[in-house]
Request: fold
Amino acid sequence: MIYTLGIDIGSTTSKCVILSNRKDIIAMALLKGGAGTKSPIKAFNLALERAELCSDDLSYVISTGYGRENFSESSEQISELSCHAKGVFFCEPNTRTIIDIGGQDVKVIALDENGKMSNFLMNDKCAAGTGRFLDVMSGILAIDVHELEEYARNSKKPVSISNTCTVFAESEVISQMSKGVEIEDLVAGICESVARRVAGLAKRIGIKDRIFMSGGVAQNGGVRHSLENILNKNIAYNDKAQYMGAIGASLFAYDKFLDNQKGGE
Ligand code: ADP
Reply:
């Protein structure tokens, strides 16, 4: 058995995936807290514990994501764009466009039929259209990000949020709350605001079917369905959407391990 581990150290979370023989996911771990926290090493140890392995059993470890450079357990680092492309293509080979919304950035990645990244666009300069926007808004609404989907679903009359900038949008939402606007309607408007921003980026790259949504925000059906309406396209997603970078890193780890073995022969 060849065990490889991929760790995606993001701005807000740390995700770990262990693969056996480049085929089966034998353990996953996700902890809140990303670059600069203790979460990466805790997620690493948790994944090992779940797989009933120790670090010496791992043939190769690759780190990716915002905090990839500072992880002492990794054998090598690879960019998150490459890892996302690899992870999504492995799990969903029909994908030609990836929309990844993380804690602080959004990426749209175009793939060719061999899974090679042919183009990408990224916004990491502005919180609008990222998980950060949803984190800030759920904070002022005093609800958890995991509840956003249900609130959005129960909205009868979504309120459009006119400000794009997170700081101004925050004041706008507070003002609407003070006027007694229903939280459900505000949440639907907030999800739509993120979707509008991301759709703008996706349209610039030229969307090809099939679209797959990854990253933490993919779990939010409110944003997903809003994006589907704006783009007039179906968007696929699965329960491992937040782990795609870590899966890609673990796949790269296997490939690099074999390359090194061949090089040493
Ligand atoms: P990163 O890799 O940048 O840390 P992730 O892809 O792990 O980002 O996504 C983290 C973001 O996803 C956070 O902003 C978090 O609030 C958001 N998130 C996680 N679960 C949900 C959910 N159910 N609904 C909306 N946002 C979510």
Summary: The chain has a mean pLDDT of 94.
